[in-house]
Amino acid sequence: FVATTTNKPLQGKKLLLTAGPTREAIDPVRYISNHSSGKMGFALAQAAAEMGADVTLISGPVNLATPNNVQRINVESAQQMLDSVMDNVEGIDIFIGCAAVADYRFADAANEKIKKSADKMQLNLVKNPDILASVAALANKPFTVGFAAETSNVEGYAKGKLEHKKLDMIAANDVSVKGLGFNADNNALQVFWPNGSQALPVADKLVLARQLLALINQQMPN
Ligand code: CTP
Ligand code: CA
After folding, report:
1. CB contact at 8 A, 181 and 175
2. How far, in Å, CA of 52 to CA of 10, rounded?
């Protein structure tokens, strides 16, 4: 038996990806997060493994089974996700940032449960590090692919992120469309790279994952 490259186009490639939401602690019993289900990232991990890649999936808290032949690392906060990505990025050929990383965390998360007292309270937030931009800034960077969740001006914002984060490709989705994107089984993507684009119409996330990986394989240097 001789393995062909036709059905395993990512054989020999090492892929690292992030998926799911992050949780930013307010105190030991509370956090802020978002509605990301992790489905798109897990579909990408499954599809990449099926295409022969060596896959490491760094996931925030989600309710999904680990796909076959995927090495999974669980994290909670954005800072933990960044640390785990940096610990695992060496030798990686493709990085996909699919996680819905919280943009802000609490400036001073409390060690003890916060008791209620005043009628109003304020929480101070500070910006989280940008994991995707940090990978794209590495000297020996992998082919770096981002996602963009937008509710308007999808193409404009996505192209802006492609450029200022110095990405090789970005997959944008309009999260204002009901039944698509966040928490849904289906999605639709507009994919942009520095000199091209491709629309991937509404489909099951696993189907889209295969199409996006085929595009990545086509656009990345050998
Ligand atoms: N991302 C990341 N680290 C962050 C924020 C975002 O790695 N701290 C990644 C996401 O995984 C995604 C991409 O950046 O691949 C775009 O995320 P998105 O939330 O759409 O864009 P932001 O750059 O955070 O800008 P904004 O939320 O203001 O649109
Ligand atoms: Ca964001």
Report:
1. yes
2. 5
ipTM exceeding 0.90, yes/no: yes
Q: Which domains does the chain have, with CATH numbers?
A: 14-107+125-219 (3.40.50.10300)
Q: Catalytic site residues?
A: 34
Task: Considering every ligand atom shown, identify the ligand nearest to the alpha carbon of residue 147 and give its number.
Answer: 1
- Atom 20 of ligand 1, nearest CA residue: 148
Instruction: Give 146 Cα–ligand 1 centroid separation in angstroms.
Output: 8
Q: Is residue 66 predicted with pLDDT exceeding 60?
A: yes
Contact status, residue 19 vs residue 57, Cβ threshold 8 Å: yes
pLDDT confidence of residue 82: 98
Pocket-forming residues, ligand 1, beta carbon under 6 Å: 18, 78, 97, 99, 101, 103, 128, 130-132, 146-149, 161
Rounded mean pLDDT of 203-216?
Answer: 97
- Start-end of H helices in 51-198: 78-88, 131-136, 154-164
pTM summary value = 0.95
Name which residue sits closest to atom 4 of ligand 1, judged by CA: 130
What is the structure's pLDDT at 3?
58
* d(C-alpha 106, C-alpha 13), whole Å: 37
Q: Does residue 132 contact residue 165 with C-beta atoms inside 8 Å?
A: yes
Mean pLDDT, rounded, for 27-46: 96
